[in-house]
Write a structure and sequence with these properties.
392 residues; alpha+beta; Aminopeptidase; 2 domains; 13-stranded mixed sheet; two-stranded antiparallel ribbon; 12 helices
């Protein structure tokens, strides 16, 4: 058992401890699932960069009747208890669609939250491993809640800044908890900050490149039309599943999942910040930048009623940060500089609309093409998230 020097006293294990008991939580047990959802509030002190999620959103996400992810996955939640007190949680997930896509037998683990205690972390991770082994799964990958289409990775660098919308946050000591249980790095994911108040250092070059692409490559870039939302969603889905197909741990969305995700994003999409690139009328790339609604959500502290919704609405009008959440280019249209056109258009729109900047990410550490393009635009890497792997 270890305890990091910076861990709040309330989270440190006492000198004499009771045995840790890990209990499964049925996805249909509303009372137990509520305890699972609310546990992180005991980990993060007031003033932490962590953004408390809305209870309503977490309930819907973990509800098979409302989240189409469950159509191709099995999920088991676990709570760790000691002395009658909850001290940790984890979710184990068999994503049949993801495993079929990659020909793998992985159990994804996520929703990992834990006091700074190796014994608790070990019991939680072993419970997830046991569940996976019983299903014939031979490797654990995570944290993924539930796959790379959702929150992915463990924050290992950049703890001072709050997470952008749909990005995770965790205390620094989680890295040690996982690595002491035998988990090793599989892939790093980067988040970048791009200011909208200062010109990119390569701005003239990028402008010339963008003009060349428009004139000689026959690529037309336009804003997504919100009035034609359903059709635009279909166009973006076709590009997305083609563009990301070979990316690390990518899982193609089902139609139901993509529509569900698009519905959730609709309220934070601005037409001026979302683009589709077309070649001879065919969509070949897209870029989607959304409002960083976490700036407002954090003030609700999980609750919309009675006053959370008023705080949320008040702060929604004061958002000054964005997140470039996805950029995809079809195979056959890469290395033409389309991503540079998207960055220029987004940068100009963000400045015109009064935003101070935004987070780009995540990007794979292995995606040199995109990472170099971001650096050329003046992007600064601010956070690193790590995905881990271990045999079950």
């Amino acid at each position: 058992m270890t305890s990091s020097p910076g861990t709040p006293p309330s989270l440190r294990a006492p000198a004499t401890v009771s045995p840790v008991r890990v209990v499964p939580v049925s996805i249909d047990d509303r009372r137990a699932k509520e305890r699972f959802i609310r546990f992180p509030w005991s980990i993060y002190p007031k003033g932490s960069p962590w953004c408390p999620p809305l209870f309503m959103d977490r309930r819907d996400f973990l509800n098979p009747a409302k989240n189409p992810f469950f159509d191709h996955a099995c999920v088991q939640l676990f709570l760790a208890e000691r002395g009658g007190e909850i001290v940790g949680r984890i979710a184990a997930c068999e994503d049949r669609r993801g495993n079929a896509h990659w020909g793998s037998k992985a159990v994804n683990f996520g929703f990992f939250e834990c006091v700074d205690d190796d014994a608790v972390a070990g019991e939680l991770l072993e419970a997830a491993a046991d569940w996976g082994r019983a299903r014939g799964l031979d490797r654990m990958v995570g944290p993924l809640s539930f796959n790379t289409n959702h929150e992915a990775g463990l924050l290992v660098e950049g703890f001072d800044e709050p997470p952008a919308i749909q990005m995770p946050y965790n205390p620094p000591y989680y890295r040690g908890l996982l690595e002491r249980q035998g988990f090793e790095k599989e892939m790093d994911l980067y988040a970048w900050w791009l200011s909208a108040t200062a010109d990119p250092p390569q701005l003239p070059r990028l402008q010339r490149l963008a003009e060349k692409i428009r004139e000689k490559a026959g690529i037309a870039v336009r804003n997504i039309r919100l009035k034609d939302w359903d059709a635009e969603v279909q166009r973006v889905q076709e590009v997305y599943n083609d563009a990301w197909d070979q990316n690390w741990n990518f899982v193609p969305f089902t139609d139901a999942e993509f529509r569900h995700t698009a519905k959730d994003l609709r309220m934070v999409v601005k037409e001026d910040l979302a683009y589709i690139a077309e070649h001879q009328g065919r969509p070949v790339a897209f870029s989607l930048t959304i409002l960083d609604a976490n700036q407002a959500i954090r003030h609700a502290d999980g609750r919309l009623f009675p006053f959370g919704i008023l705080r949320l609405l008040w702060h929604l009008r004061r958002i000054d940060r964005l997140r470039l959440i996805a950029l995809g280019i079809r195979h056959g249209y890469r290395r033409r500089g389309i991503e540079s056109v998207f960055y220029l258009e987004t940068f100009a729109a963000a400045r015109r609309l009064g935003y101070r900047g935004g987070e780009i990410g995540w990007t794979l550490e292995s995606n040199d093409l995109i990472n170099r393009a971001i650096e050329m635009m003046g992007g600064r890497k601010t956070k690193t998230y790590r995905a881990y792997v271990r045999p079950t």
